[in-house]
User: What shape does this take?
Amino acid sequence: MKLSEKELEILGVLEKDARIETADLAKMVGLTVEETEAIMKKLENDKVIVKYLTMIDWTKVDDHQGVRAMIDVKVTPKQGVGFDEIAEKIYRYDEVQSVYLMSGTYDLSVIVEGKTLNEVANFVSQKLSTLESVVSTTTHFILKKYKHDGIILEQEKKDKRIVVS
Amino acid sequence: MKATSKSYVSKTVRELKPSGIRRFFDLAAGMEGVISLGVGEPDFVTPWPVREAAIRSIEEGYTSYTPNAGLPELREEITKYVKNRYHVEYSPSEVIVTVGASSAIDTAMRTILDPGDEVIVVEPCFVSYGPMVTLAGGVPVPVQALKENDFKILPSQIEAAITDKTKALMICFPNNPTGTLLNKQELEALAEVIKKHDLLVISDEIYAELTYDEEFTSMASLPGMRERTILVNGFSKAFAMTGWRLGFVCAPKEILKEMLKVHQYALMCASTTSQYAGLEALRNGREDVDKMVKSYRLRRNFIVNSFNEMGLTCHMPGGAFYAFPSIESTGLSSQEFAERLLKEEGVAVVPGDVFGESGEGHIRCSYATSMEELREAMKRIKRFINSL
Assistant: This one.
């Protein structure tokens, strides 16, 4: 789908700040509030805008730190359905946050989230590796997030410029 | 009679007016919680690959002088850049790498002026042009671009200011502080007057990359203008490299050769580290510039539309990162408005009159600041106006 310049600008702003007031967004792209709302509605209907989310740093919240692992999964693709069937089987689990088909030495990249290391380990050994087409798994636990989806998580936000120049 | 310390200072320098920007800096500097729209530089940090190139050059020991005119490979790259972006052809021997655009303008003035020569300076403009003319022994002749023309200077205004002492015209578009851009037709009309009276132009094109609606045209690209233009540009605004102090100047060989004498005696060469950074910026910085321009455009729209909505008339600036709204409706002078806004709401702007007479009644607001800060600043300015 080909989008107009204004539509792209709106997406660019919303991707960084979904909570922006529509009135401000309208001023930024030079449209009326009504026009801006109509474009957002259209992009939502077309599923270009899928959802408005909040990025939360759970590591700051006691008892909610959680554990994340990225799992490289090798699978045997099935005649006719390729990787789709096994991908679907994997993403149905609530623990699974993301599933990507990858190029390279393994096939699916699965991101799993659990409350404890044990919980994730159990998921991998009891559920994921026992699936019929899964050949092997390699689990990498995430130790610390520095930058996530383009956002640097712990960054001093200091303007180093002189006040008037 | 014993000399006082002050009498050691030349009359010319003593009589120079201190910068109005500087005065406002002193006012705002001590205050807490100030949101500053007074900053004349990008809010982006220099792109990482550029910083890395500089670090690498230091690690590899490139810490000595470069040739006076700058690194040969950088001059080569500058000629390519000016040709591709601005459609003017120079040979590397027609380029000097300077210490920011400021030193390029200073060198130009000192190269072209004899005592008493006049330079027409289009105002409102950056505060340094007039003083640089004076320091070079010349006489600055300010001509005012007017609000009713969206701060576009008219050829007839230039023509009216020309005397038999006029040597050159000093312009800067996109303009600091008004953001005004002259399009090709408007520049052509200006060029006609310049050619007719056989003047030289010093064209400060430091904001050339930052245009939002119409394409930028370089004065030197117009027919018959290359030979009478000293083109000044640099890395500060486009590549977010203000602190590196790196600019360049392009001019016809006969002029440039003479400028090089001034540059070499006064400055030797631009910082070597900065030159390596500049090389990387020109080779691989395009995407970063485009990204910054996109972001400035949205913020420009926001701030200009916000000003107009709250009743401060503001033309839509075609370039740079300044909005220049009129505050005449408040009945305050630029200085009163800016000082009270700073004291009462903690928002720093620069009063328009410091950039020239026709800037009175306006304030310069830089939108090179995060959207969160801009939003808060607009809220405070609105509250301030409503309190008057």
About this structure: Chain A has a mean pLDDT of 94.
